[in-house]
Write a structure and sequence with these properties.
Blueprint (H helix, E strand, L loop, with lengths): L1 H18 L13 E7 L2 E9 L4 E3 L2 E2 H4 L3 H13 L6 E8 L3 H19 L4 H7 L29
Length: 157
């Protein structure tokens, strides 16, 4: 019985080894990886290339564009998780939404671009939840309501 279990385990590991696809790095002629990140209504186009760790958002330094330290920390999370702080230059073009949504979109885009540049980083980023697009968006307003769910004020007379 133990012999059968052992062979089943060996078969499972052999199948798992065959099923894992080997991903090739995706880079353009300049050696950059590009990706699109999204969060709420914000969309970020991200270009990632080897460099000194400069992050530019809409042609401005990240410190000037995102004033709050929490947003800058959010953007740096993929680099911290993969131990790649200061190794890549990031150029972003962000549109739509507010600053918080834009920071989340940039983080999502950086994570995707890192997996395109170095496919072996994918399990680390996947485990950290950086590759998952946050599906929460603003709920639409319904007719007969003041907002999405708020009713008009009741008046007895």
């Amino acid at each position: 019985m133990a012999e059968q279990t052992k062979t089943l385990a060996d078969l499972k590991t052999a199948v798992a080894a065959q099923a894992a696809p080997v991903r090739e790095p995706e880079r353009d002629a300049q050696g950059r990886s590009t990706a699109t990140g999204k969060r709420k209504d914000a969309v970020a186009r991200v270009w990632l290339k080897p460099g000194k760790g400069r992050i530019t958002v809409n042609n401005r330094e990240v410190e000037k564009y995102f004033g709050r330290p929490v947003l800058r920390m959010l953007i740096a999370q993929p680099f911290v998780a993969t131990n790649r702080v200061g190794e890549f230059d990031v150029n972003c073009a962000v549109t739509g939404g507010g600053l918080s949504g834009q920071a989340g979109a940039v983080r999502h885009g950086i994570s995707k671009a890192l997996t395109y540049y170095e496919p072996e980083l994918r399990p680390i980023l996947k485990k950290g939840g950086f590759l998952t697009r946050d599906p929460r968006v603003v709920e639409r307003k319904k007719y007969g309501k003041r907002k999405a769910r708020r009713s008009f004020q009741f008046s007895k007379r």
